[in-house]
Amino acid sequence: MSTLPENMSTLPEKVKSWMGEAVVRVDGVLVAEQGLWQNFCAAVQDGNPLYWDARVAACLTDTVIAPPAMLPSWCIEHDWCPEDQRLGLRTLELHFMLKDALGLPFGVVSEVELEFHRPVRSGDVIAAEQSIRYIQDEKKGRNGGVNRRWGIDVPYKNQDGALVGVQTLHFFSYRKA
User: Fold this and answer.
1) What span, in angstroms and rounded, lies between the C-alpha atoms of 124 and 45?
2) Residue 82's domain spans which residues?
């Protein structure tokens, strides 16, 4: 669901064309592996048996699962790739595209929501799409600069095309006077 600002004339045509579209796609960067999520769990001392113990997990989820909060980590492009020696996409590339298109060089994430639909299991390959949820009108800041808020939805799907979860990020971006 995309929401446009009341004053559409404040948006460049390029940004208007992005509304309602999946602008950035990230296809299967990593294969979800139990060893990777257990390294994460060990680092944060998360002993949930659903992530570690196949016997316990078999009763509840059929097999061990990845911690749900790791969902976005399966779709982060590497900074470098030996196959084509290219730079990967920046994490949340659409946010940077919006900052550039709207001339707002500074930005912060003000809120993150994660909605989980099904567990990630070892061997899953997760893909993501980034689309604009809303863009608010430009406002004048107290320091004389300009600011704007926007939201980005990132639905994650597994290799079967099943929705695994949705991340919604809310941003505050600005330009100093």
Assistant:
1) 24
2) 8-32+70-175
